[in-house]
Amino acid sequence: MAKPTRLHMAVAKRVLRYLKGTLEYGIRYTPHDQDEGLVGFTDSDYAGDINDRRSTSGYVFFWLEGLSLRHPGSSMWLPC
Q1: Residues 7-47 pLDDT 10s
Q2: What DSSP element (H or E) covers 60?
Q3: In this predicted structure, what is the pLDDT of residue 42?
Q4: Half-sphere exposure of 31 (CA within 13 A, CB side)
Q5: pTM value?
Q6: For the segment 54-69, what is each residue's pLDDT rounded down to a tens digit?
Q7: In what order do the strands lie in the sheet with 66-76?
Q8: What is the phi-psi region of residue 76: left when phi exceeds 0, alpha when psi lies from -120 to 50, beta otherwise?
Q9: Spatial contact of 73 and 58, defined as CB atoms under 8 Å apart
Q10: Going by C-beta distance under 8 Å and a sequence separation of 6 or more, which residues neighbour residue 53?
Q11: Burial class for 30, CB neighbours closer than 10 Å (0-12, 13-18, 19+)
């Protein structure tokens, strides 16, 4: 960045503190006799909250029993 601000520095310090606190975390991949490949699970609730019409959905993918990708989230439901 050409001109970092104090906010940028504060965010960078926060990220570094987070990384320092998670040094012992990791993903363990275990060998198998047969390759199970990529396994994924999804779930969703389309506009389940009748008041704000927000949808929630998420997915998680495992490879060799190790978490590879996950996404929890919510979004606005827009009727077509």
Answers
A1: 999 999 999 998 888 888 776 766 666 666 778 888 887 77
A2: strand 54-63
A3: 85
A4: 1
A5: 0.41
A6: 777 788 887 776 766 6
A7: 38-45, 54-63, 66-76
A8: beta
A9: yes
A10: 47, 76, 77
A11: exposed
Which of 73, 76, 77 is closest to 42 using CA atoms?
73
Structure-block tokens of residue 59? 């997915």
* Token output for 1: 């960045």
The pair of three-digit structure tokens given for residue 22, joined into one six-digit string: 């998670």
Determine the length of the chain: 80
Q: Is the dihedral of CA 11, 70, 79, 51 positive or negative?
A: negative
- Encoding tokens for residue 55? 């949808």
**H or E segment and range at residue 16:** helix 6-21
